[in-house]
Please model this.
Amino acid sequence: MSARFQAPRGTHDVLPGEQPLWQKVTGTLAEVAELYGYRRIQTPNFEDTDLFYRTSGQGSDIVQKEMYTFTDRGGRSLTLRPEGTAPIARAYVEHGLYREPQPVKLYTVAPMYRYAAPQKGRYREHWQCSVEAIGSADPAVDAEVIHLYTEFARRVGITRYELQLNSIGDASCRPAYVERLAAWLDEHADVLDADARAKRATNPLRVFDVKNPAVREALRDAPKIGESLCAACRAHFARVCELLGELGVAYRLEPTLVRGLDYYTRTVFEFVGPEEKAQSAICSGGRYDGLIEEIGGPPTPAIGFGAGIERALLALAGEGVGAEPEPLDVFFAVEPGASAHTAVAAVRRAGFSADTDYAGRSLKGQLGYAQRRARLVVVVAPDGWTLRRHGARDRSIDLRGLLEELSA
Model:
């Protein structure tokens, strides 16, 4: 018996029946991004491994546990892209986009790869929209990036979410806070599990990114970064909150929200769905004012987010939102002795979708098949065409008349 293959664990096929909603989500994300002035960029599926070590941090879960890393035939260490920000930042530096008028506003919709335990809505190969505004420290850009996702959610029908917001400071105020936090963690080591202790060893801030509910609850008594912000970070965050209020964006301040990557500074945020899980975010992001400089560019402030496509689809499923496939414009049902191939070609050439029977169905079978899939049905007989349309009388028609009907 020949082998039967399945998609690799943690991956999935997007079947034709799933494509209408998939295209609605990805298309709306692109449409909204471009309405806000963002331009599409595409980066390679794999990058230099060091790019992610330099940006995500060697102690991050991504680097320690989740990257798909391999050595190519030239001996180079390469990694399948686990997130979208670092590759876009690399392209910004490599191609000198810092010489263009700032901010440079970019987006992509692309697959990402993380070796993690597959679960509902989360895959090892998953699709993500990354939106990045590079080159401005203005709090208004923070508010715009956040507002962009709320507009996408409104358009596709995602309503059940909470926007969580925090500021994690910058290089001026964070070091003193990290010292206070580290001291508290040393005094309360008994509340930490193995995962939290490992995170504390690499970056104390990361303990707030643990998944254990008991540890997360205990950490609510730890010192909060918001209590240690410098005047500049405090003013920046206050303005972000003020602007979100002006835009009508509801949010909740979450003092333990830090995000799991080293490059974040100041504003961080998550759109969290209704699932009672630690990993229920449908969109996450923040400001990363030091990342461009870290990979060889000039000092450049920036902010962005990553929004999971599968997570958005899961949120829509929870709200009962779907999408129907677009019907064919016309189906040609063919009687014995007739042919529709040149007619199909002519209609397609005119810009309309068209199809005909290739399965040898009877005329009755063709008509039953067509009525479920096409707006118009044309019966092709050896002596002429008949237009059949639901709710209207049959009538004779030729190619010119059909094209007029389709254009109406």
